[in-house]
UniProtKB/TrEMBL annotation:
Main location: cytoplasm
GN (gene name): glmS
Subunit and interaction comment: Homodimer.
Residue numbers annotated as active site: 355 (for fru-6p isomerization activity)
Keywords (A to Z) from UniProt: Aminotransferase, Cytoplasm, Glutamine amidotransferase, Repeat, Transferase
Catalytically driven reaction(s): D-fructose 6-phosphate + L-glutamine = D-glucosamine 6-phosphate + L-glutamate
Annotated GO biological process: carbohydrate metabolic process; fructose 6-phosphate metabolic process; protein N-linked glycosylation; UDP-N-acetylglucosamine metabolic process
GO MF terms, alphabetically ordered: carbohydrate derivative binding; glutamine-fructose-6-phosphate transaminase (isomerizing) activity
Record function comment: Catalyzes the first step in hexosamine metabolism, converting fructose-6P into glucosamine-6P using glutamine as a nitrogen source.
Section of the entire sequence shown: 241 to 600 of 600
GO cellular component, one term: cytosol
Protein's name in the database: Glutamine--fructose-6-phosphate aminotransferase [isomerizing]
Amino acid sequence: ADIEKGTYPHFMLKEIDEQPFVMRNIISKYKDDFDKIKLDEDIRRAVMGADRIYIVAAGTSYHAGLVGKQMIENIAEIPVETHIASEFLYNMPLVSENPLFIFLSQSGETADSRGVLVNVKEKGFKTLTVTNVPGSTLSREADFTLHTFAGPEIAVASTKAYTAQMAVLAILAVDTANARGKEMSFNPLQELAIVANAMEVLTDQKEKLEQVARDFLSVTRNAFFIGRAADYYVCLEGALKLKEISYIQAEGFAGGELKHGTIALIEEGTPVIGLATQEHVNLSIRGNMKETVARGASPCMISMEGLDDEGDAVVLPKVHTHLAPLVSVIPMQLIAYYAALHRECDVDKPRNLAKSVTVE
Ligand code: G6P
């Protein structure tokens, strides 16, 4: 059946709003009768047997892969490298003895990712595709598939597929940790339910986020997103969302790298969006924000409850640190949406972009 927008003006807004439901859907699909993680035994074995994981992806999926690397390394303690699909074959890493290749792809059709899949399969390496489209090329050609259960994503700018990918990777990470006999205090199925509620709180703040977009992004030519640790990866995604649909030149930076070049671009009124969801980087990112303000920047701080300060533009409801990226991206998606709307851009079909790039 054709997917309808219903009462929504754009698919993108609809898909942003669907994220809490997607989380609950993922929980139900990955839960067994005893409220434990349900996962294919062969996949479990493949991940367990890997001495190193290589995540390969493009665009927004690549950004999910960066977060996934952190999750798997921190939770399951398996080394992970995340690679841009189109670069992988030019910059082939020295592959470990028992690698597992994970292809992250909403569509399962991205040619750059497929190019890598074909190459590593020839070498006899194990492959797993994490995708929203189980019958897709990458899914059919890999040894294993994990479904992200986000439902069809129509808007070119990816939203719910990104959070769904990270949710599935978190479940995979914990499952692997469990299988390796690690004591886990972190139950991803419970924590994702808390994430779903937090997402709902944020998608209910549309008016406020529209105002943030109006205040910070209505006339600017450029914008910067800064964060550290996992927040940095979400900043890359926040900047990509804004570029894709509003055509504002936006870049995500690691807070500490600002002073090594990018700060030269800060002028009177340049919007700088700061993100702090991780306690160990809260003070340093706030320090970076001050450095930009001293050079004229308009600061827009997004922080997590408990780390918030007076004057922060958006305060995110508290969720587990590992899952903070699933929540902190929501206001960025909405801010990008409203910025594009105010600029009268074609939100669902931005110029020059395709939903899925099937040429190399
Ligand atoms: C295109 C889309 C992006 C997407 C990327 C990877 O460039 O415009 O939104 O992130 O492809 O797509 P995939 O389907 O492999 O996740």
